[in-house]
Design goal:
This protein starts with a helix and ends with a helix. It has one domain: Tetracycline Repressor, domain 2 (Orthogonal Bundle). It has 207 residues and is mainly α. It contains 10 helices and no strands. α6 packs antiparallel against α10. The protein is elongated and about 65 Å long.
Length: 207
């Protein structure tokens, strides 16, 4: 079905995908409106369904595009030359912010899909996103200098404790943001709070 869409002029394609991605980034899937999408894109509603067939197909098309871009960028998130785990985490967060500034609609779109209580992603795409996140975690824990940690606790245990702490922090943040439109969230205080949280972990677990 999307073959009809991909034969369009590139400028028109971008206008439609930008409008659709902004809509799904600002609203949860069930609240997202194809009426608003076509109004912003400047096309008839019938044409949108002519290109994609359904709202679900449009969403899946956008998700596939977004995940493909993120897969290409994901390896840049982690500085493998930085062996200090906390500093690596800080660097990763900063790079994610840079990616957000370059691709705000894409970032917001993926973030909104994560905030969904029930994922609307087709299983193959959900599996790709999950695999990408798992690969990122493996890279995050590879080649670290555990001699920086306090001697009284084994390095592997410290990594687990830090990882669990960060995971708990992330889950708490997601719960706090659940139901909010991601485009309306001011990220800067959350990034600053995250850096402060990492500094606390460093004081607790490092020599």
């Amino acid at each position: 079905m999307t073959t009809k869409f991909t034969t369009l002029d590139k400028t028109k394609q971008k206008r439609i995908t930008d409008a659709a991605m902004r809509e799904f980034a600002q609203y949860a899937y069930d609240q997202a409106s194809t009426n608003r999408i076509v109004q912003e894109a400047g096309i008839g509603k019938g044409m949108l369904f002519h290109y994609f067939g359904s709202k679900e197909a449009l969403y899946a098309y956008l998700a596939k595009r977004a995940i493909t871009v993120l897969e290409e960028l994901y390896t840049q998130y982690i500085d493998m030359d930085e062996s200090d785990f906390i500093e690596r985490m800080k660097g990763s967060a900063k790079l994610k912010m840079e990616v957000y500034q370059r691709y705000p609609d894409l970032f917001n779109f993926i973030a909104q899909t994560v905030l969904e209580k029930e994922s609307k992603l087709p299983k193959p795409l959900a599996d790709r996103l999950d695999t990408m996140q798992q690969d990122g975690m493996r890279r995050l824990f590879s080649g670290l200098d555990t001699t920086l940690f306090r001697d009284e606790v084994p390095g592997e245990d410290v990594l687990k404790l830090i990882s669990w702490s960060i995971d708990g922090y992330s889950q708490e943040l997601l719960a706090k943001l659940n139901g909010a439109a991601f485009t309306e969230i001011d990220l800067e205080p959350h990034w600053q709070q995250f850096y402060e949280f990492l500094d606390v972990l460093k004081r607790v677990y490092y020599k």
